[in-house]
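Recap from last week: sequence in, structure out.
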Amino acid sequence: MDLSESELERYDRQLRIRGWDINGQKRLKASKVAVVGLGGLGSASSIYLAAAGVGSLTLIDHDKVSLPDLNRQILYSEENIGLSKAEAAKTRIESLNSKVKVNPVESRVTEKNIGSLIGEVDVIVDGLDNWKTRFIINEYCVKKGIPLVHGGVSEFYGQITTIIPQEGPCLRCIFPTQPPETTHIPIFGATPAVIASIQAAETIKIITGIGKPLVGRLLLIDLEEATFEEAKINRNPNCPTCSSK
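Predicted structure tokens:
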């Protein structure tokens, strides 16, 4: 997949990164990524993936834009209030990079429809705010061998890990029991921006082969105290999701 003159100019600064070069950019252009959840995490991760030149983005969210979203969901503006997040995200991303193919999906992910909604992708990015759907996606990724980049946020705090099936623990290994669900999670707007930027970086590292993804490592970020900590996580040999895969 060749790069046009305008693409070479657009991506000039990242093409200069050691190990990236034209081949890395071509891999990005040929890649397909699904972002599930277009809130604070999905907004920032999808826009940075588009800016970097990911060829195809499937953007999944069943919700509509509301005023309280605007403190952190940077894809949207006041003019988008009441509109589908997936469609509004498509418009915004295509205005940033018309070379990216955007597939908006206005639907809630379930065990029955996940395959048809996501299709064939190289990486799935977790932009969700509920654990039930996260575990559905985790199981799907393990079954299909698709890398999953997990992120979660609350207040000034965030966490992120990268799951590559058979190379490291899955989400169920890390969280054997489902954490309690929380509605109206308190959140400082910059918190998901930090986590989502790392999610975008993890996704791009997987696609280009650059660097060391957060496999078997849970990165914990506290913006209130300005600390970053890492927890090492091993696969659970008795994990109900990935031990038999």
